[in-house]
Amino acid sequence: MALRGALRFSCGLSRLLSQRLPCSSHVGGRISPFLTTQQRNNSTTAKVKVDFDQSTVGVALMSMQSPPVNSLSLEFLTELSIAVEKLEMDKSCRGIILTSGQPKVFSAGLDIMEMYGKSPEHCGEFWRAVQEIWLKLYGSNMVVIAAINGSSPAGGCLLSLTCDYRIMADNPRYSIGLNETQLGIVAPFWFRDTMMNTVGHRSTEIALQLGQLYSPAEALETGLVDKLVPERPGPCHSHTGNDQMVGHSRPRQTTNQVHGEEADRRQVNVQQRIRHPELRQFHHQRLHPEVSGHVPGNA
């Protein structure tokens, strides 16, 4: 399965990880480059389980555990963001494998009940949480690999698109894509442009208009995923055999080109990675606290 492939693939992370920019956390006014054992254990919550692979130093396995289908509710998104932030603070953690602990599904996408019959204030808070996890994963200094071990529509597809490398279980019953059109929802422009940065303008245009869901084979052909691995019972551990991507996953700058502390380094990395001008402008605006959550209807 996909997770088995990601774990084997993570063994090739060492080349990139040795080049990763230093990442320090600020605790009580002083720099604390490593998380304590208690802080690391606290990365695991009711809906997000974080384990560290003993065979691959510096790689965290982040498993989504929100039954039945890992719907992205406000609570779940908040826990995901906190878990990623804690790993960012841990200098010894240099990579994340994002996967699902639920059978046959990676993530079913946004929880529509968070938008139905809710106040404008709640909707704004929800969309800010969606933006937050997108920014944290897409702009992370860490290598992030998606082990897609089930279907991944809509917001679930967005989660995988924030990752550097996507490995999917080769099961024709699984599907992946931004299918919001089929649900009568307009995908926000930052959903669109994240996909466009991955598969290109024309493929994204067609996919969004049709609300297209791709089979694993189709996703590989269009570039939505990078590798397929056989689905097997038990823990997923297939070999991917691609080490070259590891050396080029996250754009980097030398320290004398980056001003300020770790937050500034993350901002530079995100703005390098987000190539579309409109997407860059949105990220710049999002850095200011007075900017409200971006609701799709306002895109």
Structural account:
Strands 3-4-5-6-8-10 form a six-stranded mixed beta sheet, with helices on both faces. It starts with a helix and ends in a 13-residue tail after the last helix. It is α/β, with parallel strands linked by helices and 299 residues long. A hairpin with a 6-residue loop joins strand 3 and strand 4 (59-64). It contains eleven helices and ten strands. The protein has a single domain (48-232, 254-280), classed as 2-enoyl-CoA Hydratase, Chain A, domain 1, CATH 3.90.226.
In short:
This protein has 299 residues and is α/β, with parallel strands linked by helices. It has eleven helices and ten strands.
Question: Which terms would index this structure?
Answer:
10 strands, 11 helices, two-stranded antiparallel ribbon, 299 residues, disordered C terminus, 2-enoyl-CoA Hydratase, Chain A, domain 1, alpha/beta
| Rounded radius of gyration (Å) | 18 Å
Can you tell me the CATH topology?
A: 2-enoyl-CoA Hydratase, Chain A, domain 1
Tell me how many strands there are.
Answer: 10
Strand order of the largest sheet: 3-4-5-6-8-10
Overall mean pLDDT: 73
Helix-strand makeup class: alpha/beta
- Measured as a percent range, the helix fraction is 25-40%
Q: What is the CATH architecture assignment?
A: Alpha-Beta Complex
Strand content range: 5-15%
Count up the helices. Answer: 11
Main location: mitochondrion
EC number: 5.3.3.8
Region (Disordered): 234-299
Biased composition (Basic and acidic residues): 275-291
What is the secondary structure topology, with strand pairs?
Blueprint: H1 2-10, H2 14-17, E1 25-27, E2 30-32, H3 37-41, E3 48-52, E4 59-64, H4 74-89, E5 95-100, H5 120-138, E6 143-148, E7 152-153, H6 155-161, E8 165-169, E9 176-177, H7 189-199, H8 201-210, H9 216-222, E10 227-229, H10 262-273, H11 277-286
Parallel strand pairs: 4-5, 5-6, 6-8, 7-9, 8-10
Antiparallel strand pairs: 1-2, 3-4
Keywords: Acetylation, Fatty acid metabolism, Isomerase, Lipid metabolism, Mitochondrion, Transit peptide
EC number: 5.3.3.8
Pfam family, one: ECH_1
